[in-house]
Amino acid sequence: MNAFPTVQTALITGASSGIGATYARRLAARGYNLLLVARNEARLRLLADELTARHDIQIDILAADLEQHGEIERVANRLRNDQQISLLVNCAGVALNGSLAEADIDSTHSLLQLNLLALTMLSSAAAVRFSLAGRGAIINIGSVVALLPERFNAIYAASKAYVLSLSQTLHAELSSRGVQVQVVLPGITRTEIFERSGSSLAQIPPSMVMEVEDLVDAALHGFDQGELVTIPSLPDGDDWHAVTQARMQLAPNLSRNQPAARYH
C-alpha cells in the first residue's frame, strides 16, 4: 500500500512530544524528510537536531498553534503548495477531565478547534492535493474511546468518534484515487496528555497502559498492511471485522418509508 516515491516528506502535527515525536523518530528512520508542526518551537528544534544527527534527512519546523484558525490555515497552505509532502500524520490533540456539565467554554472551544477543526482542515487540504497527484496517505490519531463513549469524558470521546467517522468516509472517497487513509485507535498511552488535562496515570493498572513507542510501531505495521482502522491493543483483528460486518447489516433497514412495527 506504500506506493510512494523514494524521497518523500511527512507533515506531522503535535510533533513536539508523545505520539507525534515518536512518529517523527520512526519515519526519520524510514528515510522520510519531515515537516514538524507544534506550538513549542524550542522542542521542535531539539527534536530536529536529534534526528538530523542520526539520519541523512531534511527537517523543517513550523511553529503553529492549531487552536487558532489563522494558524490552521497557514499549515493547510503549506500542505496545498509543498509538492514534496506525501504523508500527513494528524497527532495534535488535547483531552479534558470531568463531565460535560463541568466543562468551561474556553477549554471546550480549544478542544473542538484542535481535535476537530484542525484535523479536518488539514485532512481536506491533503485530500485535495494527494488525490490530484494520485498518491499520498493520511494517518489520523483517534482513540478507543470512540468505541466506548460511556466510559470517558463526553467531549473528548465525541471528538474521537468524529475522527473515526471522518477517516472512514475519507477512505471511501479517496481509496480509488490512490490515497491511503488510516485511523489509529490507541488505548491508554503513556504521554503528557493526561497531566495536561488534569488527570493522571497513577491510578490506572499498568496492564492497561501502552508505551508510546510500542503504539507507534504497531500503528506503522498496520499502515504497512493497508489497514483502515488500527487498534493496537486488540488481540484478535476479527473482532473489529465482526463489528464492521454487524454495522453493515443494519444498512438495508436504516432508511425505509415506514416506521418499524414496534413504533406503531
TrEMBL record:
One term of GO molecular function: oxidoreductase activity
Record has Oxidoreductase as a keyword: yes
Annotated ranges, domain Ketoreductase: 8-144
Keyword Secreted: no
PROSITE patterns given in the database record: ADH_SHORT
UniProt entry keywords in alphabetical sequence: Oxidoreductase
GO cellular component, one term: membrane
Annotated Gene3D superfamilies: NAD(P)-binding Rossmann-like Domain
PANTHER family associated with the record: DEHYDROGENASE/REDUCTASE SDR FAMILY MEMBER 7B, SHORT-CHAIN DEHYDROGENASE-RELATED
Identification of the protein by name: AraC family transcriptional regulator
